[in-house]
Specification:
7 helices; about 260 residues; 2 domains; alpha/beta
Length: about 260
């Protein structure tokens, strides 16, 4: 028991740079208190003391603002940062080294008995305000973005964002290189257009660059064919796009929405 408690304290130091010493962690971290109270409540639940387990769980909710059903299964080094408003359902299963931030819900979408809450495998990180709803699995090392609503399985190592939750797919290096090349050719600053960014506008611009690259390649092929036939039609350079032409557009985009 004391070994598990030491692990829990060390996990706080590993994942929260604000932690200064063990005494502060033990006395001032409600996430840690919630985990320890849940361990007691879960042991009572498995021993058949259901009502007493719920009493301990309810006390933990009152003390920390974190609601964990005593039937939930939680692995080692589980870390809750801040924690207020977290809800973890009865059939939820959480692996080792999982991190949850404030406002997270591991909930169900059915009133039927049986498995109805999600399973989080080792190393999963769930951002603040996210809702993971249903009896599916979030794979090891996956990340759930803040305020996402996830209702389907998330593969290991993937990132899910948005409402409804969608998987962010990282473009391969070759595709990113092509996008960068066409962006530089057009005089466009492609910063922030990477598929790593969960931004639909950035994704649309990335797809536009893909289309421009395909059109540019086709035009070069046509020009090569015309040149082989003796035509000099393609000898002229295309007009250059100037960054200052887009300055007004950037300023308008930066204005806050009313």
């Amino acid at each position: 028991m004391f070994e598990r408690m030491r692990e829990d304290i060390q996990s706080v130091f590993h994942r929260d740079p604000a932690a200064r010493n063990a005494f502060e962690v033990v006395t001032c971290y409600p996430g840690l208190h919630a985990v320890w109270l849940h361990r007691l409540a879960h042991a009572l639940w498995l021993s058949g003391w259901k009502w007493l387990a719920r009493v301990v769980s309810n006390f933990g909710r009152w003390l920390t603002g974190i609601e964990i059903h005593p039937g939930a299964k939680i692995g080692r080094r589980f870390f809750i940062d801040h924690g207020m408003g977290i809800v973890i359902g009865e059939t939820a299963e959480i692996g080792n080294d999982v991190t949850l931030y404030q406002g997270v819900t591991l909930g169900g979408t059915s009133w039927n008995k049986g498995k109805r809450h999600p399973t989080l495998e080792d190393g999963v990180v769930v951002g603040a305000g996210a809702k993971v709803l249903g009896p599916f699995t979030v794979g090891a090392g996956a990340k759930i973005g803040s305020n996402a609503v996830v209702t389907k399985a998330v593969p290991a190592g993937a990132t899910a964002v948005g409402i409804p939750g969608r998987i962010i797919v990282k473009a391969d290096d070759e595709l990113e290189a092509k996008r960068q090349a066409i962006a530089e050719k057009l005089g466009f600053d492609a910063y922030g257009v990477s598929q790593d960014m969960p931004d639909p506008v950035a994704r649309a611009i990335g797809q536009l660059l893909d289309h421009l690259h395909a059109v540019d390649s086709r035009l070069e092929g046509m020009c090569g064919a015309l040149k082989s036939l003796g035509s000099d039609y393609c000898a002229k350079d295309l007009p250059q796009l100037r960054n200052e032409d887009f300055a007004g557009m950037v300023k308008e985009a930066d204005k806050p929405a009313v």
